[in-house]
């Protein structure tokens, strides 16, 4: 059975939304611009399934862009949320649940000695950068093209994610002065890094990198690249910030750090987290070396704050999610991801379509191109139109992929035999539609 491309109830809601919300969405990639068609408005979600307002069911391979690692409305997470909510929604004082969540993070990621909780990954990067600038007394930040760290002014130069989707080189509204404090380098390019530091090393506060990039599609660091980041930053007295907002607690119990291990020369100085650690609620964090974190207000001179930071309901959801992410869950995620990716590859092979699948733990993305993708230029050199047709072929057959060729596919531990069968059954038709 296939669904029609028209989705009347979603189309009606989109029209209503457009009257009061720019483009009808609260985050750009949701608008389906790069794949065309009507974004589906969801009514509810349970386990691996999304149900839209037209009453259609989809297997979910977006997982709210990462957080829903256990599937939707997991009964034990729901119970934790109910319990926390019954105790009050927000106190504006410290409370125990946020301490427990911080302890869980510190326990899982060894180099993180202390963390501050915030509300989004964007806030986490913004705060980590301010802290690095405060610690070093320098202002320049190095980032890599195709890496996304949230919509922080100075980090919107050559960012991935929605910006990759829209092929915007930059965002309007970012002052030249903010962009001037950012050096954008190609990912996986050690000589470019060395040149930048040779020229401006004394001004550079930090290098921020996705621990393993996932916002230009999955583009793992080549062997030795993370080591080089550590070596060069240390040589020049700059900090290394590892953005694990997407990979944290997803690639492994301790994120990409747990898979790759500490770089030669020592762990990154600061980490950022989000997505999985909020269990679907707005919670994120930044943390790392205790001597650096000690510079935060009120003890230190670097100001950082948040009315809802450490929110007890969000903390309860995050903590329940992390505690349910056992080694068995990570093993299951890896198994399910490989089953799906193998089937995609087999179907594309059969149809003679050039493709490349790249991995970070159970995160993977399917590039419509031949050959390894090492950086943003490689990632942009793919057949995005073919992806768009493939996306709609899957959607028609009840599988919701990320609506962009530059995104990661996120599996959940809730994907059961029925959901996986539905994905496998959709593939031949969707690949045929993509040709
Ligand atoms: C999603 C993401 C962010 C931004 O997080 P928000 O919660 O959307 O602000 C930052 N860094 C990375 C690597 C991300 O994937």
TrEMBL record:
Residues recorded as bearing N6-(pyridoxal phosphate)lysine in the entry: 275
Pfam families: Aminotran_3
Subcellular location: Cytoplasm
Keyword Isomerase: yes
Main location: cytoplasm
Known EC number: 5.4.3.8
Key word Cytoplasm present: yes
Record CDD domains: OAT_like
Pathway entry: Porphyrin-containing compound metabolism; protoporphyrin-IX biosynthesis; 5-aminolevulinate from L-glutamyl-tRNA(Glu): step 2/2
Similarity remark: Belongs to the class-III pyridoxal-phosphate-dependent aminotransferase family. HemL subfamily.
Name of the featured protein: Glutamate-1-semialdehyde 2,1-aminomutase
Protein source organism: Ornithinimicrobium cryptoxanthini
Encoding gene per record: hemL
């Amino acid at each position: 059975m296939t669904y029609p491309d028209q989705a009347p109830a979603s189309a009606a809601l989109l029209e209503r939304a457009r009257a009061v919300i720019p483009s009808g969405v609260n985050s750009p990639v949701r608008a389906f611009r790069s794949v065309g068609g009507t974004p589906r408005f969801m009514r509810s979600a349970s386990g691996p399934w999304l149900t839209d307002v037209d009453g259609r069911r989809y297997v979910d391979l977006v997982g709210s862009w990462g957080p829903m690692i256990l599937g939707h409305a997991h009964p034990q997470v729901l119970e934790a949320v109910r319990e926390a909510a019954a105790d009050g929604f927000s106190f504006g004082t410290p409370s125990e649940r946020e301490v427990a969540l911080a302890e869980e993070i510190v326990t899982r990621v060894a180099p993180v000695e202390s963390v501050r909780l915030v509300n989004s990954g964007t806030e986490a990067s913004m705060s980590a950068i301010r802290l690095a600038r405060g610690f070093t007394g320098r202002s320049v930040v190095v980032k890599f093209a195709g890496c996304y760290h949230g919509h922080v002014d100075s980090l919107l130069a050559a960012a991935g994610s929605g910006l990759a989707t829209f092929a915007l080189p930059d965002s309007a509204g970012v002052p030249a002065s903010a962009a001037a404090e950012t050096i954008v380098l190609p990912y996986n390019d050690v000589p470019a890094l060395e040149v930048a530091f040779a020229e401006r090393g004394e001004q550079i506060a930090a290098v921020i990198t996705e621990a393993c990039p996932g916002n230009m599609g999955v583009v793992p660091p080549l062997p030795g690249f993370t080591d080089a980041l550590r070596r060069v930053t240390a040589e020049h007295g700059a900090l290394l910030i590892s953005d694990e907002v997407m990979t944290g607690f997803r690639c492994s119990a301790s994120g990409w750090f747990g898979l790759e291990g500490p770089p030669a020369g020592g762990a990154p100085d600061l980490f950022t987290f989000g997505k999985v650690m909020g269990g679907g609620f707005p919670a994120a964090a930044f943390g790392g070396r205790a001597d650096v974190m000690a510079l935060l207000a009120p003890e230190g001179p670097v100001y950082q704050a948040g009315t809802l930071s450490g929110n007890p309901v969000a903390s309860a959801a995050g903590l329940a999610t992390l505690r349910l992410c056992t080694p068995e869950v990570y093993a299951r995620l890896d198994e399910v991801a490989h089953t799906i990716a193998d089937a995609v590859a087999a179907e594309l092979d059969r149809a003679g379509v050039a493709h490349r699948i790249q991995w970070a733990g159970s995160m993977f993305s399917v590039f419509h191109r031949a050959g390894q993708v090492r950086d943003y230029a490689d990632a942009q050199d793919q057949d995005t139109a073919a992806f768009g047709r493939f996306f709609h072929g899957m959607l028609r057959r009840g599988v919701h992929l990320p609506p962009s060729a530059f995104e990661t596919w996120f599996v959940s531990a809730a994907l059961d035999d029925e959901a996986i069968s539905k994905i496998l059954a959709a593939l031949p038709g969707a690949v045929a539609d993509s040709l």
